[in-house]
Amino acid sequence: MIFIPGSAAWLAALCSSRVLSATWFVAYSAVLPLVREDWGLSARDAGMIQGAFHLGYLASLFIVGFIADHYGAKRTFLVTGVAGFLSPIAFVLLVDDFWSALWLHALTGLTQGGYYTPVLAMVNEHVEPRRRGRAMGLMIAASSAGYALALGVAGLALAFAGWRVALAAVAAMPVVSWLIALAATRGTPNVVHPRPEGHTVFAAIPAVLRNRKGMLSVWGYTFHSWELLGLWAWLPAFLTAALILNGSSPQNALLFTALTYVANIAGSIVGGTMADRWGRTQTILLWSSVSLVLSFSIGWMITLPVALLVALACLYNFSAIADSSVHSTVIAESVPPHILGAAYAVRSVVGFGMGVISPVVFGWALDHFSGEPYAWGVAWMTLGVGGLLGPLATWKLRRLR
What we know:
Elements: H1 8-21, H2 27-39, H3 43-71, H4 73-94, H5 98-110, H6 117-126, H7 129-158, H8 163-171, H9 173-184, H10 204-210, H11 212-245, H12 253-278, H13 280-297, H14 306-322, H15 324-332, H16 340-368, H17 375-387, H18 389-400
Helix pairs in contact: 1-7, 1-9, 2-8, 2-11, 3-4, 3-5, 3-16, 4-5, 4-6, 4-8, 4-9, 7-8, 7-12, 7-15, 11-12, 11-14, 11-15, 11-16, 11-17, 11-18, 12-13, 12-14, 13-14, 13-15, 13-17, 13-18, 16-17
């Protein structure tokens, strides 16, 4: 079967591939309470391992952006995807302590960028503008579906076996993802956008930095990433602590966290659809404000009844992801196509750089106030403080647009 680029079936196939490739992103978070116990990790050490993944991932996105500009998005997607499914297998087989986890998780992050930037570029190339926001939303929703699937599979595996078996079950899914991607893109042309005469690949970064609308989009995404990546790194551990305080079984924490990622799916689709109908920047401002309110408040509500706390966590994940696809659409519409890969690269370095730091800062705050009843409240507030400047950058961008 040959999929027509830009068609609903083509987009559905790419989304299916994305669901399975995204599963590895939360695999470590899914087993975090168990590996902390086995290896005697502090909260800061645990955050460093997650930060190492984000550091590798941002390096990957930076590199892949330039490769996609030079060689085309489709070719970059398929070639780098091979490393993307091999590295999680290596992690499962070789990880054994803090240092091996730190370096191997950084390696897995370094191989994951090919599943993201080139796919967004292909969506931008082949989906018409009036459907592009929703298409980007569906792609981000597919990521959230992958996170939910990973947590569900890991939770099921942990009921019968240890954390390594749970990781192995998750690591098998990116292999299937790459096979689906290979089939989905058979009929998709590999597009290399022509550059103006004398405009080399190395001139792309200065061109991005001079693009005011593009850079305001980058800064809005940067503070969004601080909040979102910190949330994803620590939500499973937070819900585990909440269940213990409420006298419930902590084994249910992964299932509840998976439920919040189902809310992610809805948030991505709603955010993308709203952006097409009511405007890009208006949508970002609305949902970023909601997520900030929850960043400053959810940690103080750890003793609430479990059902109410999980409902708030669902709203938190919904609002935190609702503007994510819109950020990706905005930057694609703010820079010339021949430097789009470079724009995504710059955004990745700055944005995911914040994502490297925020889980560590969260863990540091949790360690520093360990034993205090307000420890989780202060830790979650670090995400809100870091995210405050995002709406300001988006407001300035709105005035320009």
